[in-house]
UniProtKB/TrEMBL annotation:
This is Putative AP-1 complex subunit mu-1 isoform X1. Keywords: Coated pit, Cytoplasmic vesicle, Golgi apparatus, Membrane, Phosphoprotein, Protein transport, Transport. Residues 104-357 form the MHD domain. Belongs to the adaptor complexes medium subunit family. Subunit of clathrin-associated adaptor protein complex 1 that plays a role in protein sorting in the trans-Golgi network (TGN) and endosomes. The AP complexes mediate the recruitment of clathrin to membranes and the recognition of sorting signals within the cytosolic tails of transmembrane cargo molecules. Coiled coil: none annotated. It is a peripheral membrane protein. It is found in: Cytoplasmic vesicle, Clathrin-coated vesicle membrane; Golgi apparatus; Membrane, Coated pit. One of its GO terms (cellular component) is organelle subcompartment.
């Protein structure tokens, strides 16, 4: 994707300009899938149309892609009567159109946490944090109001439940649909949701995280002719949980050849174009320990070690599990017609920037 820039005739709020540029990119990608030079050239007419609605006299206006798609279509070259802008644009609830109807009313809520971790060669955790997001897919009729209850530490303390298991959320950011005044007053997350898929909120916890998957490595070079790797992987979460699609990525010198692997579980593959080995474990239950051995030939004359030793990276996904302990206590759905709706909640923990340095 190419960089996007904005020009200003006078001093502007830089944070607002960056926020607008991110929103422009998001809307363009909703229309064109890819924001590349070719897609901009092919769609310059509709880009002019979108910019006319997104920005008015230099001020951001309607920036919701779903609402824009209701009246700015990519069949603009046809000689048809232009559709009228939906009333939602001038409504207080500009992110949701009226008259939405579903035969089956459902809400899907995903709590997704990414673990960022950096471990040094001595096994000490240098950096650890949890970056979380609550994503929703809403298929509800009418104009419903939703109220979400979390085990928020401040809320629990305010309501006399300080000893209950709670989570202290930091850097909380909400979708524009959330009533911020209510959250500031009594920590209630109340909102009229957009239709379809959106991110309700994000948060961060700058807390010490016990490495979920621990890696130990021994690298031995023999007389400049071969190199051997022994990688031990241990899952340090409860036995009732299982990590799926685990990938352990080990960097190797660029001039190795003739790879040979032995694994107690899963399989290892040499990726010469990336200069690394990927050890893949489809299912990694908690409290387990697995081993992988790799053997490579090296040229007889070894060049000076200028490449350094990149850290081992780990990718994983653990369903039905959160590192922070955040819980959805309730999701109330209130709509004037009084229909019953089914809320579905799912928890997922995955890797973020998860790296373990090697000797």
């Amino acid at each position: 994707m190419h960089p996007v820039v904005a020009t200003s005739k006078k001093n502007a709020n830089v944070a607002m300009v960056f926020s607008l540029l991110h929103k422009l990119v998001q809307v363009f990608m909703e229309y064109f899938r890819e924001l590349e030079e070719e897609s901009i050239r092919d769609n310059f007419v509709i880009i002019y149309e979108l910019l006319d609605e997104l920005v008015d006299f230099g001020y951001p206006q309607t920036t919701d892609g779903k609402i824009l798609q209701e009246y700015i279509t990519q069949e603009g070259q046809k000689l048809e009567v232009a559709p009228k802008p939906p009333p939602a644009i001038t409504n207080a609830v500009s992110w949701r159109s009226e008259g939405v109807k579903y035969r089956k009313n459902e809400v899907f809520l995903d709590v997704i946490e990414s673990v960022n971790l950096l471990v040094n060669t001595n096994g000490n955790v240098l950096r650890s944090e949890i970056v979380g997001a609550i994503k929703m897919r809403v298929f509800l009729s009418g104009m419903p109001e939703l109220r979400l209850g979390l085990n928020d530490k401040i809320l629990f303390e305010n309501t006399g439940r300080g000893k209950s298991k709670s989570v202290e959320l930091e850097d909380v950011k909400f979708h524009q649909c959330v009533r911020l005044s209510r959250f500031e007053n009594d920590r209630t997350i109340s909102f009229i949701p957009p239709d379809g898929e959106f991110e309700l909120m994000s948060y961060r916890l700058n807390t010490h995280v016990k490495p979920l998957i621990w890696i130990e490595s021994v690298i031995e070079k023999h007389s400049h002719s071969r190199v051997e790797y022994m990688i031990k992987a241990k899952s340090q979460f409860k036995r009732r949980s299982t990590a799926n699609n685990v990938e352990i990525i080990i960097s190797v010198p660029s001039d190795v050849d003739s790879p040979k692997f032995k694994t107690t579980v899963g399989y290892a593959k040499y990726m010469p174009q990336e200069n690394h080995v990927i050890w893949t474990i489809k299912s990694f239950p908690g409290g387990k320990e697995y081993l992988m051995r790799a053997h490579f030939n090296l040229p007889s004359v070894e060049a000076e070690e200028q490449e350094g030793k990149p850290p081992i990276a780990v990718k994983f996904e653990i369903p039905y599990f959160t590192t922070s302990g955040i819980q959805v206590r309730y999701l109330k759905i209130i709509e004037k017609s009084g229909y019953q709706a089914l809320p579905w909640v799912r928890y997922i923990t995955q890797n973020g920037d998860y790296q373990i340095r090697v000797l």
